[in-house]
Structure formats: structure tokens, C-alpha cells
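Reopening this ticket.

The earlier resolution said the output was attached, but the attachment link was broken on my side. Pasting everything inline this time so it's all in one place.
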Amino acid sequence: MKRIARMVLHLLPFIPYWAVRLLVYAHTQVGTEESRYRFIKHLTIKANRAGRVRVVSSGVENLPAEPGYILYPNHQGLYDTLAFFETDPHPFVPVMKKEVTNTILLKQVRMAIRGITIDREDVKSAMRTIRKISEEVKKGRNYLIFSEGTRSRQGNHTLEFKGGSFKAAYYAQCPIVPVALVDCFKPFDVNSTEPVTIQVHYLPPILYEEYKDKKTMEVASMVRSQIEEKIREVTGEA
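Inline output:
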């Protein structure tokens, strides 16, 4: 992809040092969760500048003051998680699908921030992962879950949000934070190096008391509707 190549070329002098530091974080107990997150955030911001990607965000003040919440955005493209690393001031852990577990760089980043992978084809394994996530959320870790399960590949249009992905929130009894991503498919899914602006809109959290009596599919539909409404508001698209 042209934009990734541009990022690598512009950051080439720094890559050896960053690679060593990333490996240290990935394979040792060096650093705190905060320091590891700040390092990944620093790399992301540098990569975005090199790749001519401008990130605009709103609603950061909607993020709960206390840690222990789950972000539920729409899923547009390969770039999505990087949008969060630049805009979310609090450390979070993205849940990655098993298929990318051994992808170079993604693997090291996941290990550095102690990320979790989920096997969507193995129901029992997936439920164990959901339970593990909920226990960590109870302890104050924040998570990022793409409840569509895969990229929409439809630009700013969403796919159905899967109810099962919200079980982690139910088990943890934590705030759900809907997040509307706009044009996040453009940096990596469009073969161009032209400057691009993407948007991240953090919507007001849905507290446990507001969703505890609803079915997971009802919550999934509600979160999707809020995200779609925000996308229509900022794009004017029907």
C-alpha cells in the first residue's frame, strides 16, 4: 500500500531504535501499562504525520473519568485502531481477531500493550476470551471491541453489530462507549498518498443501569443506531 510505504520511507532513520524498544516492551516486563501505551501513541502520531493522515476527534470529554469501560466503534478499515491510539488519552487494549495474531508489527504491538486475540470460529474459546476481558475491565482496564466482527468495506455505512460482543460489558457491568468512525477506510484501504482527514467521535457512554435489562441484540442495535446517526450528522450522507 502506497501510504504505508510512505510512512516507512519517511520514518526509516527512527525505525531501528523504535523496533528495539518495541521488542523490549513486547518480550519483557519493562515499563508500566501507561508508558507502553504512550510509546505506541507516539509511534502512531509520527506515522500519521508521515502518512499525511490528519485525525480529528470530538467527544473525548465523554470518556468515563474512571477506568474500566469498553469502546464499541464501527469498523471501516485496517487503519481504525490507529485512530484510537492518537485520540484516546487513556490506555486501552484492542481485541484482535486470531487471523492477525502473527502479522509482523501487529503481533509486537499486541504483545507490548498486552492485547488479547479472539477466535471467532471457536465459540467456547471466544466465550472464555469474553470472560477474561470482563474480568480485566472490572480491574480497571479499558478495551476496544469491533462488534461488526469485520470491516464493513462499505465506506461510511455499517454492518450489523453482533450482540455477542456486548456480553463482555454485561459481565463487567461497565460503561459502553459508542464511537463513530468516519472516513477511516481511506488511509489504508484506498491506494493513494493524498492527504486525508479521518474523524473519531466519542459518544456519551451508556451506563450499565441503562442497558442491564435489555437483550444483547437490543443493545447492539442501539449502539449501531447512535453511531449511524452521528455519521449522518457529520457527513450529510443518507
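Reporter confirms the inline version is readable. The chain has ten helices and seven strands. The chain has a mean pLDDT of 93.
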